[in-house]
Amino acid sequence: MAFDIEMIEKVYATMAERVDKARDIVGRPLTLSEKILYSHLWDGMPTQAFARGKDYVDFAPDRVACQDATAQMALLQFMHAGKSKVAVPTTVHCDHLILAKNGAKQDLELANKQSKEVFDFLSSVSNKYGIGFWKPGSGIIHQIVLENYAFPGGLMIGTDSHTVNAGGLGMLAIGVGGADAVDVMSGMSWELKFPKLIGVKLTGKLNGWTAPKDVILKVADILTVKGGTGAIVEYFGEGAESMSCTGKGTICNMGAEIGATTSTFGYDDSMRRYLAATGRQDVVNAADKVASYLTADAEVYANPTQYFDQLIEINLSELEPHINGPFTPDRGTPVSKMKEEAAANGWPIKVEWGLIGSCTNSSYEDMSRAASIVRQAVAHGITPKAEFGINPGSEQIRYTIERDGIIADFEKMGTKVFTNACGPCIGQWDREGADKQEKNTIVHSFNRNFSKRADGNPNTHAFVTSPEMVAALAISGRLDFNPITDTLINDKGEAVKLNPPFGDELPTKGFDVEDPGFQEPAADGSSVEVVVSPTSDRLQLLAPFEAWDGKNITGAKLLIKAFGKCTTDHISMAGPWLRFRGHLDNISNNMLIGAENAFNGKANSVKNQLTGAYDEVPKVQRAYKAAGIPSIVVGDHNYGEGSSREHAAMEPRFLGVKAVLVKSFARIHETNLKKQGMLALTFANESDYDKIQEDDTINFLDLTEFAPGKPLTLEFVHADGSKDTILANHTYNDSQIGWFVAGSALNLIAAGKS
């Protein structure tokens, strides 16, 4: 039986009436995305039609999921909210704090020692507040959610940008910051600007070397890393119906890399098969009763241009395998073009590592298809030219692929089997030789390939491709190897050709596992004590942020003018910094250390206006804080792209930054800034970015008149006494201005005013 089946049945019990009412109000057929949104309104029955990309709407998500790195701060905030139990089903998953180095057994043992304090904290808080707890080694959050909790037509939020993986099971699953999660866990509504809709029509059928991963790699190439901002991507068509459920999850998952609010697919037979295979026939039985409400109205898919704000069409029969990168996930290269692209750009051809796994490509099907390539290499007597590693998605998957001989197949080729965890995908990889910072190429089936993301080496060229292609490229040792046309030389000097991959969508013998790693919370957690040592360097209880004093911010200093790509990795790095995710003061020492200073082209080097000397960004900001001087951060386009990492908002807030002024924001980061009581502003005229000088002092002229739809006026006073007055736009509504006034959204919750 599924977890929370009563909740799921309750959602389905009201769906038909709510969707029918919404269809009448809107006055046209509805997309799947609209059906799910309108059936999850906080007020219940729809009463009005909402404008896409304009109206802020209050929703009632069905569940919340948190991974261990983000859960620390989310739960520390929840403890501050003063609630006795979570209001909706919630889970915590330990997958980020496990360093990949020697292999699963040793790495897990080390993690349990090094992060015992954090795991114990998460376990006890989960036990106290009625939260399901998945232990270290149980698996990657999004794979576990897909296997256990996701259901067609549901709405969930998660404190990780790749929560969207659950879209493979027909949900709207949306990545958020911890403060948003606390709202929902506390029994409050969750606010979202009603998204625009992008339709992706898939015709034809995947064949040969082309995999579901290639669909999202192509979409990312089309839309770029910001092309999906403020929109839901809804996939449909014969091509969508022909794919597996986990393949759909792969596509939705990486939708985070185009900035999309989320992505989803309509309910179909692949979802039925997957639900049944994972022990959830009861969900199938319930979903089948409302099946027509779990996909778009027929008219929508018949005439999609009338119902979507943007339409993309992809013929799967003609789609080539893609290899995206380096340094950005939206630079797509068809495998047939890689030879010339690599040569033209000077990319290192030799592949040093191939890595399969992460939340997007760690399913049974992924491992099965990749193993089919490995078996061929072993049978042909080919010694792989690159090192090779895999991360199974969950203990259930690991146990099953071990039972079915797939792990043994990988190990015959010398593959290193890492823990069922994120590992290299998030920078939790102790890669030998990375400290030498040599120029090199790796290929992986992950989502992100920003500079320094996987191994900390800025010269590692990371390319994103399907698990099958990772296997082929690792075996060949060449980035420009095309398995469709090229041959390999085996150890006997013979030319051999790899056949296209094949594998089972689901295990023919069914899934199996001895211990999935789940801890059910106490029925009554009132007696559970949560202990946080005041001397801990890993955990720190939170103090409320100060409320706004009601005055204009004046005399503020420019902390940094960031140039170019500034992701949440640049603002608050992962990797070794993950250990401080529960200690706001300590982790604030990584604030903006990866951002490039527009004035000197360097990272982590900004001018301290108090001394005139250049120093590390956190040190300069701490000097301003100690002196009682406010500051602002200026940034470029799509600022805060990438992870849902709320630390990227909390750190500047904690250290005294008052405002972030950029050309444009990534959705989650803008919301995170608002939630923490900061000013998230955009240039009314993008060219004003060029007017900002290194020694600027900034005055807000009309913050005392802060109101929805009214731009703010900022005065930039230059070192020579001249001034530039700049208009800054914002998207704050009345309730969000209330967060700013109170000092944070959490302050309102704690005060019982929200």
Polypeptide structure, described:
With 754 residues, the protein is α/β, with parallel strands linked by helices. It folds into 3 domains: 5-315, Aconitase, domain 3; 341-494, 2-Layer Sandwich (Aconitase, domain 3), CATH 3.30.499.10; 556-750, Aconitase, domain 4. The chain has 25 helices and 30 strands. The strands form 8 sheets. The chain has a 7-stranded mixed beta barrel with strand order 22-25-26-27-30-29-28. A 6-stranded mixed beta sheet has the order 6-5-2-3-4-21. A 5-stranded parallel beta sheet has the order 16-15-14-17-18, covered by helices on one side. The longest helix has 22 residues, at 5-26. The relative contact order is 0.11.
- Overall geometric form: globular
Tell me the CATH topology of the largest domain: Aconitase, domain 3
Largest sheet: 7 strands, mixed, barrel
CATH class of the largest domain: Alpha Beta
Structural class: alpha/beta
At CATH level 2, the architecture of the largest domain is 2-Layer Sandwich
How many structural domains can be distinguished in the coordinates?
3
SS field, number of helical segments:
25
Question: Strands of the largest sheet, in order across it?
Answer: 22-25-26-27-30-29-28
Distance between the termini: 36 Å
Rg measurement, Å: 25 Å
List keywords for this structure.
alpha/beta; 25 helices; Aconitase, domain 4; Aconitase, domain 3; 6-stranded mixed β-sheet; 31% helix; 754 residues; 7-stranded mixed barrel
In short:
This protein is an alpha/beta fold and 754 residues long. It is built from 25 helices and 30 strands.
